[in-house]
Design a protein that fits this description.
Layout: H1 2-11, H2 13-32, H3 37-44, H4 48-60, E1 64-67, E2 70-73, H5 75-81, H6 85-88
């Protein structure tokens, strides 16, 4: 698995950063759901605009949905999010 990550970093270094960032957003949403964007951004230490960009992308991929009460993940998709723990440590 580690050699796969090194291979991906060699070809597309920004891809590993993107995967790590999105996984962290999804994991935090799962832990805190339902959670508002402001609190989620503060918890992750990013701006609300940066977080909005990530959550919009995740929503298009059907990993996240936001309601008036805050962000939450789709249950079927959230099970898939817990799988790559070995990838991210």
């Amino acid at each position: 698995m580690h050699s796969d990550i090194q291979w991906i970093e060699a070809i597309a270094p920004d891809m590993v950063d993107m995967l790590s960032r999105r996984y962290l957003v999804l994991r935090t949403i799962n832990w805190m759901a339902p959670v508002g964007r402001r609190l989620l951004a503060q918890t992750l230490g990013v701006s609300e605009r940066t977080l909005r960009t990530e959550t919009d992308t995740l929503r298009k991929l059907r990993f996240d949905h936001d309601k008036q009460i805050g962000h939450a993940s789709y249950p079927a998709r959230s099970r898939r999010v817990s799988r790559p723990k070995s990838f991210y440590g």
